[in-house]
Amino acid sequence: MxxxxxxxxxCGGKAKMMSREExxxxxxxxxxxxxxxxxxxxCNKCFSRGKPFRMKTNKYYDPKKKTGExxxxxxWNARVESAGxxxxxRT
Length: 91
Ligand SMILES: [Zn+2]
Known about the structure:
Blueprint: E1 15-27, E2 33-43, E3 53-57, H1 67-90
Antiparallel strand pairs: 1-2, 2-3
Bound molecules: zinc ion.
Zinc ion binds at residues 8, 10-11, 13, 43, 45-46, 48.
């Protein structure tokens, strides 16, 4: 599944999906690490960030499904849209 990110509402630059492990929250019964991963979209040009989306992940998190990425992309795209509306209203 491809994540479709709209262009940055501030500079029109290309956005990229980022993710990093934020903190270890424990282990499952079978001893697998469980971490909180934060996903966010970031503009490559002005580095403004979208609203981060956090979720607990472990080795069963399938990066191909991009569950967290999709959520973060949703809020990024929603902000781009609302920023566009404001601009239209102003003129
Ligand atoms: Zn930008």
